[in-house]
Specification:
This protein has 398 residues and is of the alpha/beta class. The chain has 2 domains: 210 residues, Glycogen Phosphorylase B (Rossmann fold, 3-Layer(aba) Sandwich), CATH 3.40.50; 184 residues, Glycogen Phosphorylase B (Rossmann fold), CATH 3.40.50.2000. It is built from 16 helices and 13 strands. It is globular.
């Protein structure tokens, strides 16, 4: 996970890092048994101090998930502040995944510790709630917008995962925020993908008799697997393609049933595997697939797998719109069709499969070069370190 990378990186740079988080319960939805037996073993990570606060476990229902979210920001703001009493900090950094309320403890601690608060915005609220239909009530969406505005207006720096987030974020900043405090700060790929050539995969063997397209990540509604399956069927008759799906999610059962019912024997469902297995799997593929349905939020988002794909030196096949499509196109790393365009996906798979291996290799190398120029972890960490120092100096001058 990228926040783990950040903790490791800043500890390695010689900084003292403290993490305020909840009791471990993801993804199973219940507090880890090992944690209950011995909480102390979960209090340090690569030299960083881990401070944990009590929360409701995620469970398997919407109600328990909501209680999990609410309990964290309430517990971290109160109990967390108490546990961190007497400690001083130069900067407060919020890993701003959904829900946006996770930023509230960061704002509270920033005020208590008189330290600048940085919020890394990885998801747009309340747009994402409206786009995926989680909340349809205009009144509730309006309330969510007021919460977002309250948070943004009290942050010292807003870090944007995508350049396209700019206007969406600004509309909730009723207090003018200077351009130097609204910072483009994209994600990076884990070191596993940008490092040395991986060893052979123990999950999948290379097969030069077929063109192997690999998808890795969440298998959910947003990834539009019905459209992917339409492309699978469209291509099957005229091109030997092996489709490899790695991961799991809410649509996993539907996908397994669909593959079985339609006898798609060229679709391999490998299930979920740890991150360290991915580079070797990627190396077996001829191209890597990214897909995302389109809406006002998704068009502005760059899925984290795009950086991992670029770093892997493999060409990319993308059924996606917006910012992510621009990255794939501008990098020269692959081919793009519109979100939800099953026939377009089939066509670019045919086109990619017809290319000489040397041309696909060239695309992969272009993608890797683009990754190191725009998304390198080392460059991004250096940039963030400079921001932290600048913010500290600005505070001390007041």
């Amino acid at each position: 996970m990228r926040i783990n990378n950040m903790v490791e990186g800043f500890v390695a740079k010689g900084h003292e890092v403290t993490v305020l988080t909840g009791q471990p319960n993801y993804p199973e939805g219940k507090i880890y048994a090992d944690y209950r037996r011995d909480p102390a073993q979960f209090s340090n990570y690569h030299g960083a101090q881990i401070v944990r606060v009590p929360i409701f476990a995620r469970g398997q229902r919407s109600l328990t998930l909501a209680l999990n979210y609410l309990s964290f920001f309430a517990s971290a703001s109160t109990i967390g502040s108490y546990k961190l009493r007497g400690q001083s900090f130069d900067s407060i950094f919020v890993f701003g995944v959904s829900p946006i309320m996770v930023a509230i403890p960061g704002i509270v601690l920033g005020r208590l510790k008189k330290a600048p608060a940085f919020i890394w915005i990885l998801d747009l609220w309340p747009e994402s709630l409206r786009a995926v239909g989680v909340i349809k009530s205009p009144r509730l969406l309006g309330w969510a917008g007021k919460v977002v505005s309250w948070i943004y207006n009290r942050a010292d720096y807003l870090l944007l995962q995508s350049r396209s987030f700019d206007e969406s974020v600004k509309q909730y900043c009723t207090r003018a925020i200077s351009e130097d405090r609204l910072v483009y700060f994209p994600s990076w790929a884990e070191d596993d993908f940008s490092g040395a050539a991986p060893v052979a995969s123990d999950l999948l063997q290379r097969d030069d008799s077929v063109f192997t397209v690999l998808f890795a990540g969440n298998i959910g509604d947003a990834q539009d697997f019905p459209a992917i399956m339409e492309a699978v069927k469209a291509v099957k008759a005229d091109l030997p393609v092996r489709w490899v799906i790695v991961g799991d999610g809410r649509a996993s059962q539907w996908l397994a049933r669909h593959v079985a019912e339609h006898r798609l024997d060229n679709v391999l469902l490998l299930g979920r595997h740890p991150l360290e297995k991915m580079p070797a799997l990627f190396a077996v593929a001829d191209a890597l697939l990214v897909s995302l349905k389109t809406n006002e939020v998704f068009e502005k988002t760059i899925p984290g797998k795009v950086q991992a794909y670029l770093a892997s030196s493999k060409p990319i096949i993308a059924m996606i719109d917006g910012e992510a499509a621009k990255v794939v196109a501008n990098s020269g790393a692959g081919m793009v069709c519109g979100s939800g365009d099953a026939l377009g996906l089939a066509n670019i798979v045919r086109s990619m499969g017809a290319l000489p291996a040397t041309e696909r290799e060239r695309m992969g190398l272009l993608g890797r070069r683009y990754y190191f120029e725009h998304f390198s972890k080392a460059i991004l960490f250096d940039r963030l370190e400079v921001l932290f120092r600048k913010a500290t100096l600005r505070r001390s001058d007041k």
